[in-house]
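Hello,

Our lab assistant flagged a job as stuck in the queue for most of the afternoon. It eventually completed. Since we weren't sure the result was trustworthy after the delay, we are filing this so someone can double-check. Below is the sequence as submitted and the structure that was eventually returned. Let us know if re-running is recommended.
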Amino acid sequence: MKTRRQFIKTVGLAGAATMLPWAGGVRRAFAGPLPGGTLDPTQIAKYVSPLFIPRTMPRTNKLGQRKGKNIDYYEIAVRQFKQQILPAGLPMTSVWSYGSIHHPGTFTYPAFTIEARWRAPVRVKWINGLMDDSGNYLPHLLTVDPTLHWANPPGPIDTRPTFSSTPGPYRGPVPFITHLHGGHSMEEADGYPEAWYLPAANNVPAGYAKTGTWYDTFKAKFEATWQQPWKPGSAVFQYANQQRATTLWYHDHTLGITRLNVYAGPVGFYLLRGGPSDLPDGRLPAPGPQMANPSQTSPHEIPIVIQDRAFNADGSLFYPSNREFFDGFAGPYLPTSDISPIWNPEFFGNTMVVNGRTWPDLKVEPRRYRFRFLNACNARFLILKLVINPLAQRPARPDWPFHQIGTEGGFLPAPVQLGQLLVAPAERADVIVDFTGLRAGTELFLINEGPDEPFGGGTPGNEFEAAEPGSTGQIMKFTLGPLTGPDTSLPVDQLALPALPVLGNAVRTRRVSLNEAESAVLMDVGPSEALLGSMDASGNPMPMMWEDATTENPVVNETELWEIYNFTADAHPIHLHQVQFQVFNRQALVTDAEGISMPPARLAGEPFAPEPWETGFKDTVINYPGQVTRLRAKFDIPGQYVWHCHIFEHEDNQMMRVLRVGR
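-- returned structure --
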C-alpha cells in the first residue's frame, strides 16, 4: 500500500488541475479550493463583515461562602439558533453555542467569554439545551456515525456497538459534556468523555440511557462536597482557578462525537487573570468590551478563534456524511469489514471562519494590540503571517512581525519576535502586534500557509503545498484608522514577563506511542482508526484501544518525563488533561525512506531544544513524525482524566486514553 507521502508525490506529478482522493486526508484540488458543500467559497465576499468580539459572559449571581471567597455562579446552556456567519445577503446558518439562560441575548457563536480571577472560584451549571420550543430533543445538525466507540445512548453505553448490517446515522438526542481546556480541574469538573448527559427532553426514547458511565460517580462527589444538586440535563462544575493567568477555552468532550459537537459551534474563551503570574493593569493593551460597559467598542485586547468550515448554498454547515468523501472508499463497511461507514479520518473545510464570521475585517488604530489566537479547527494546522498582499506568492515574506508573549500555560519567559505563528489545533498564541507608525488606510492581511491536508512538519513549497491562496490561505484583514487616544501600554522591548515556576526534575520516565491502523481485512484501505499506546522494553509500540486497561497511572504529586514516540506519517497535537507541562526536548528517530519511524524505535542524533515559543508552560504539544517529543509534567490532583490527540477526528476514533492519577 502507498503511504500518504508517496500518494502525495504521485498526485503531484499528475498535473496542477488534477483532483484525486488522497489516501490519508482530503481530496486535494491543486488548482482551486478544497471540495466541500454546495456553496463555492470563491463566491463568498471577503472582508465585508466586521470581526465579532465576544463580550463577557454575565454571571447568574454570587454565592456567599462562610469560609473562603465568594463564588461567581453561572448557568450556561448550549442551544441551537441561526446566526449570520456568511456575509449579509447570504443565508443564515443553524449553529449550536453557549449562552446564559438568564440573558437570552448572550447566545452567540463563538460564546461569550468567561472572565475569571486567580483563586476566585467559578461555578457553572452546564445545561444541555438541545431541544426545540416544545421541549422535544433536536437531532444533530450533522451526520452521526453510530459504529464508533462512542457515548451510544441507545445502549450499551460508552461502547462500540455491534451491527448485523451497516446502520444508518444516529438521529436521537445529543449527548454533551463541557471541558474547560487547560483547566487545573478536579476530576468531577473536567468534562470526562463518559460523564455526558442528554437534554431533559419530553421525548427521549424509552430504553435510552440519559447519562454516561461516570456521570453518577461525579454527581455524587460534587453534591457531597458542595450541596448543590445536579438536575436532569445538566452538570455543575466548580473551577478553583489556582493556576497561572492564561487563555483557556471551553468546548464539548463527549466520547466519540466531539468532532461533530464542536464543529456545530459551541466554543468559548475562559480568560484567567491576576495573581503573581500576571502583569499589572496598564502594561499590556486593555481588554473589552464588558457586559458592564457594552458601549465600549475599541478593545485593544481581543480573543480570536480561527476555524475552517464548509457551507451549503442554503447556509447550512457541511460536514462529510460518508467515508467515501474522504478517500473514495464506498464499502464494504461494517460488519463485513472494519471500516466505519461515515467517520472521516480528518476533515479540512474550504472556508475560514474567525470569531463566527467568514473572512472578517477588524478596524484598528496605529497602536499596540494584544491578540489571543486559538486554533479551534478540527484537523488543520495554521501557519500565520501578516502581509500586505493576501495573494502573494507562497511562501510569502512577512511584512509585519508578531511578538509572542504567551502560550497555553501563561506567559513565556520573555517576548519572542516572530515572522510567523505555527499553531496546531487547540494551541493558543498570546501575541502583541504593534501597528504604531502605520498610516490610516493601510491594510494588513492575516494569511495561512499551513497545508490543506495533514501536517507533517517542514515548510511550504518544500515538504507541502501552502493552503490555497484564494480561500483557506486567507484568514482576516486589519484596516488601519486614525489614532483616537494615547497608547499607554508598554512597548514590547520594555516588557518584563513574570518568572516561570520551577517544575523540578522528573522521578519517572513514561514512554508512550502514537499509531495508526490500516484495515485488517481489506487491502489498501485505511486508516481505520488512530491509536495511542505504550512501548515495550525493546522500543516497539503497543497500540491500545480506549477500553483497554489503564497504563498511564502517575503517582499523585510526582513529576514525570513523558517520551512520546510518533510512528505515523503526520504531526499530532497531544493534549494532557489536568496539567500544564513543559516541553523538554525532541530527538530524531531512525525512519524509513518516507520519514516514518520504524519499530523498534532507535534514536538518531542529539536531542534538540524546544522552539522559542514553546519555552513556557503548555497543555498541547506538536509531536512530529520521525521524532520523539519529551515533556515534563507534575500530576497533583488524584482522579480520572484523559490524554489524547486534539485532531478531533482522531480523538473520536480511539486516539484517546485514560489518564488515572493515583490509585
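-- support follow-up --
The delay was a queue issue, not a problem with the job. The result is valid. The two ends are 43 Å apart (CA to CA). The longest strand covers residues 71-83.
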